[in-house]
Amino acid sequence: AYLITSNSPMHEMVIRSLSQRIPHGNIHLIKSKDVTRELRGESRAPMRGDYDNIPFRDGFIDMMVTIGLPRNQILEASLIEVGRVLDEDGKLGVITPSILLQEMEDPLTIGDFVEKYEHEVIEHGEHLDKDHLMALMKNNFKKIEEKELVHLTLFLASEPGKLIKN
Fold first, then answer.
1. Rounded to the nearest 5 degrees, what angle is found at the Cα of 142, between the Cα atoms of 28 and 157?
2. How far apart are CA 57 and CA 83, in angstroms?
3. Which of 63, 65, 66 is nearest to 89 (CA)?
């Protein structure tokens, strides 16, 4: 499943890449109510949902991919919700601009420049303490990997066995 939470054109590239890498798999698109953009390459009607309200039954998804993180206020509930819809071997891939995981130190670094003009999130993005994020992810997943990809950070979480139930 691929969760779309903004009107960024980057989503079309990600959907196309996922389709090429998983040619025989089902890619379920989930659009938040805030997304109004029609995406080229949408092969089926996307479902409406959000980080904390994913429209699938328990254990239905083997991988969830999203660009960006939910607001701090719903981060923990969102990780629990993702864990709910993932099967026991499921994985969560979160790609987020690295600048949102730290306070901006030098506004003229190449990463910050690219971030500002390619992703347009510096002015509107919400900074998140990376240690807090990792602690919440470790509460909900047994394995967490973090990889730096130029100016993006990829978090790959797997084995959603440590779920905190409400």
1. 35
2. 11
3. 63
pLDDT tens column, 67-108: 877 777 788 888 899 999 999 999 999 888 777 676 555 555
The domains located in the chain, with CATH, are 2-158 (3.40.50.150)
Sheet of strand 152-158: strand arrangement: 47-48, 29-31, 2-4, 61-67, 86-97, 152-158, 143-149
pTM score of the predicted model: 0.75
Contact 153, 147 (CB under 8 A): yes
Is pLDDT at 157 greater than 60 in this prediction?
yes
Phi, psi of 148 (to 5 degrees): -90, 125
For residues 116 and 70, which has the higher predicted lDDT (pLDDT)?
A: 70
